[in-house]
Amino acid sequence: MASSAFASVQSVNLGGTANLSSIAAINTSPQDNNINENLSDPVSDPFAGVAGIDAAFNQIGQALEPDTPNVPNGQNLTIPSSGSEFFFQGNRIYRSGFTWFAEEGTYNIRNFSVSSGRRITFEGNSTITISRDTTTSSGARLDFGEADVFSRGSIRASSSSRIEMGDGRLFAEELETGSTARITIGNGDVDIADDIRVQSSSVVSIGTGEKRIGNDIIVSSSGSLTLENGPLHIQGDVDIGSSAIFSLGASDETFIDGDLEAGSSARLNFAPSRYFIGGDLNSSSSSRLTGTDVSFFLGGGLDFRSSGGSSLSAPSNDGNPTLDTLLFATRTTQNVDLSSSGTVTLIGSIYAPNADLTLRSSARISGSGECTLIVVRRIELRSSAQINTQCDTLSDEFNSGPASDGPTLISLVR
Q1: How far is the C-alpha of 223 from the C-alpha of 81, rounded, in Å?
Q2: Beta bridge partner(s), residue 286
Q3: d(CA 217, CA 212)
Q4: CB 327 within 8 A of CB 349
């Protein structure tokens, strides 16, 4: 421990020695200086053999692949600037006020373009195939209604335009916005073969159907992406830019096969789920992560940098080694780094038995009166970092000190 680092616990069990600077401190209670050094076996891995833990780690990297349907080549569809009606493949498209309405039917489109300021709404439960790209220009509005949409090209809302869709089925090669655009998709299943890209100050919301993304999700600065309740499978990375918002709905399981990155001042909101992340989970300084009843199983490392106010809690917080008490779990040898400019509330277990944990800067990790069990190879507190945790119900196997209502132990696996 360096500088003015501080830990408040019941006991510390070490295979080596505690290295403290002149102003660093480990406070133990109720017994003062309850630091047990040079133990031949400081503690066994409390999660070794826990029911379901191997199966959980085996689910990392198992995101399902999106479907990619075949569609006919079709004909180009462009919305005119004048007139009162026209026909496309036998389907009537008529104008009322400033909006064009496409009657219910089957539309086989090649390129679909809605020019600046124009509007079109598809009526009823149409079937729409698009072999190439769909683009709305500035100020345009495209409403697919309750149609099923099968696109082998990208669907793009250009700057200041809007695309809406009801509860129909959606397939697309890519979903993308320009700046200050909006895309709203209802509760049907969604398959995106490549990326979802949300540009600066744009808003995208996708409803409660199953969502399968074949590559990356990128949300640029000040953009917002909401993926509501329902199964989620992402085969690539998730990159949330500075001051952007990424909100995830509840699901039994959520899969991100690549890295999850949060930029400066980004906000990530996690609903209850077990999150399987194939790569690293990295958050930049001043980002904020919140979620209750969440667990993160990582194939890579954890670099958690946050402003004060981040709060994550596992489904259970009784301190006993079960699958539901895991908050962060990784078997990698990559270092686990935690730092913040204020108090971060982590309730649950940080399980990284093969990794070193470093708390740096002014990080203050608090269990908020609850249990934060830390299982790591080695722990280092730097600068003014602090740990405060309370795990009253840990069994004697993991707690060499006397029973207490106070803060509990730090134990290093090896």
Answers
A1: 31
A2: none
A3: 11
A4: yes
Question: Coil, helix or strand for 241?
Answer: coil
- Give the SS3 label for residue 57: helix
Query: Is the CB of residue 11 less than 8 Å from the CB of residue 36?
Result: yes
* Helix H or strand E encompassing 54: helix 53-58
Share of the chain above pLDDT 70, in %: 78
Under a CB-based contact definition with an 8 Å cutoff, are residues 112 and 134 in contact?
A: yes
Instruction: Check pLDDT > 50 for residue 277.
Output: yes
Q: Which helix (H) or strand (E) holds 254?
A: strand 253-256
At 157 the three-state DSSP class reads: strand
Residue type, 395: S
- 91-96 and 99-102 beta bridge pairing: antiparallel
Residue with tokens 């119900």: 393
Contact 72, 127 (CB under 8 A): no
Cβ atoms 373, 393 nearer than 8 A: no
Query: How many CA atoms, within 13 angstroms, populate the side-chain half-sphere of residue 329?
Result: 31
Place of tokens 């078997």: 331
Q: Residues with Cβ < 8 Å from 181, sequence gap 6 or more?
A: 157, 158, 159, 160, 161, 162, 163, 199, 202, 203
Furthest CA-CA distance within the chain: 87
d(C-alpha 360, C-alpha 357), whole Å: 10
DSSP calls for 110-139: EEEEE-TT-EEEE-SS-EEEESS-EEE-TT
CB-facing half-sphere around the CA of 53: CA atoms within 13 A: 20
Of 242, 207, 235, the closest CA to residue 221 belongs to: 242
Q: Which tokens in the block code for residue 34?
A: 């309850």
The pLDDT assigned to 395 comes to 42
Give the whole-angstrom CA distance, residue 31 versus residue 340.
30
Backbone angle region of 348, left / alpha / beta, with phi > 0 → left and psi within -120 to 50 → alpha: left
Candidates 232, 226, 163, 152; CA nearest to 194 is 152
Which three-class secondary structure state does DSSP give residue 24?
coil
pTM of the model: 0.89
Which residue is it, tokens 């826990």? Answer: 50
What does the block give as tokens for 190?
């969604």
Q: Pairing relation of β-strands 91-96 and 85-88? A: antiparallel
pLDDT in tens, 47-95: 888 889 999 999 999 999 999 899 999 999 999 999 999 999 999 999 9
